[in-house]
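Recap slide: Transglycosylase SLT domain-containing protein, sequence and predicted structure.
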Amino acid sequence: MSKNFLTRGHAHALNRHHKIAVAGVAALGIAAIGFSATPSDASTTTTSEAVPAARISYSTEPIKDVKGTVTDQLAGVSVKTELIAAKKQADADAAAKKKADAADAKKKAERERQAEEAASRSGDRHWGGETGKSADAGKPAQKSYANTLDGWIRESLDIMEAKGIPGSYHGLHKNIIRESSGDPNAINDWDINAINGIPSKGLLQVIPPTFQAYHVPGTSWDIYDPIANITAAANYAADRYGTIDNVNSAY
């Protein structure tokens, strides 16, 4: 091999290695320059200028479709609760008023009933100069009767019906006409009763012991009282004969 060939080959190889070395040194140089840019106190410093902060834009347009906050929701619940409580109180007040009205109505009805009963148990009448009392037992307070034989019989029938005493208008009328001719002050002063000192008296000619024994409660104790006389005689006839309708003669 010639010297020139070796020389050229060596030069060629040297040049190639030199190129690699130069490239490496250049790279190291750049790294060294970058490293030397870092301060020795290890703090980080950027050489570039700081990026300015982005501007914030504020819109004047109202925000739509935003749901209520928790405070708004709680306020709504509070209002709803108050409405429910108010309704319950109103219902309770209405129920109490209804109960009080019912109690008042019941008391009023009771007072009216008592007044009617009191009115039906008493009443002053005057018959042929004699004054007596007769209760209108068993009839409405507003019902009135004529102060005549017809009225006496009809009132007596109402009392008899209320007391469960049998008898009819015809049965009472026929016996009254036969016994006293319809005179409430009639008195028998000639028969056996009169001889024994207990004369028969009134419309149906009842002797005092019989009148007292068969007196109908609520009527007058005056034997000449037409209503008291009729009802006592009818009560006696029902006990003795079954009904005044069965009596066709003196009894």
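Confidence is low (pLDDT under 50) at residues 1-14, 25-48, 122-135.
The CA atoms of residues 105 and 111 lie 10 Å apart.
(End of recap.)
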